[in-house]
């Protein structure tokens, strides 16, 4: 570990000691549970720790709020995906109702797809979901979204390229705190 890495870790550690309670209290106002607030606060500092070093943080609370807000939006989007899937499953006949394990795997797969499509425009994501999850044809998608078939094709190419890019990308480093490192 280089001196810059140690200095960055120490700086983030100082920010954690100074601002964690403030961030947790702020997040409790937005979320329905203190445990979610703890998770988001911890993930916020973990992202800050894995961020490139060398940047001077002039307004740490503004930066922490921005990172936490982004994580909250990701949490809400995951909940929306899960809720939509569960609603579609409930509309199925009881004989075809999947097991809890199958439900968990499907929700996890949908969340992974959602994460891969993160950052794409809404119509591109919606086109992909309508095609791959709902099984609609390109003409049906074009009619439902009020766009041309060519746009549907272009949007699918964009979404598939994004999925392929994430599939070949290296996983990002997420530090874990263990007894030995604490």
TrEMBL record:
CDD domains: Sigma70_r4. Pfam families: Sigma70_r2, Sigma70_r4_2. One of its GO terms (biological process) is DNA-templated transcription initiation. SUPFAM superfamilies: Sigma2 domain of RNA polymerase sigma factors, Sigma3 and sigma4 domains of RNA polymerase sigma factors. InterPro entries: RNA_pol_sigma-70-like, RNA_pol_sigma-70_dom, RNA_pol_sigma70_r2, RNA_pol_sigma70_r4_t2, RNA_pol_sigma_r2, RNA_pol_sigma_r3/r4-like, Tscrpt_reg_LuxR_C, WH-like_DNA-bd_sf. GO terms for molecular function: DNA binding; sigma factor activity. Residues 135-162 form the HTH luxR-type domain. Keywords: Sigma factor, Transcription, Transcription regulation. PANTHER family: RNA POLYMERASE ECF-TYPE SIGMA FACTO, RNA POLYMERASE SIGMA FACTOR FECI-RELATED. Belongs to the sigma-70 factor family. ECF subfamily. This is RNA polymerase sigma factor FecI. It comes from Pseudomonas fragi. The lineage of its organism: Bacteria, Pseudomonadati, Pseudomonadota, Gammaproteobacteria, Pseudomonadales.
């Amino acid at each position: 570990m280089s001196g810059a890495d140690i200095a960055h870790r120490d700086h983030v550690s100082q920010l954690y000691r100074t601002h964690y309670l403030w961030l947790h209290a702020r997040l409790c106002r937005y979320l329905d549970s203190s445990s979610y607030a703890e998770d988001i606060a911890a993930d916020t500092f973990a992202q800050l720790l894995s961020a490139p070093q060398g940047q001077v943080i002039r307004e740490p609370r503004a930066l922490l709020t921005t990172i936490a807000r982004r994580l909250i939006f990701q949490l809400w989007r995951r909940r929306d995906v899960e809720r939509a899937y569960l609603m579609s499953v409930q509309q199925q006949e009881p004989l075809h109702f999947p097991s809890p394990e199958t439900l968990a795997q499907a929700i996890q797969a949908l969340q992974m797809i959602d994460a891969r499509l993160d950052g794409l425009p809404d119509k591109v994501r919606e086109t992909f979901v309508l095609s791959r999850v709902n099984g609609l044809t390109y003409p049906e998608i074009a009619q439902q979204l009020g766009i041309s078939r060519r746009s549907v094709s272009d949007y699918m190419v964009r979404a598939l390229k994004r999925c392929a890019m994430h599939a070949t990308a290296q996983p990002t480093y997420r530090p874990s705190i263990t007894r030995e490192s604490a």
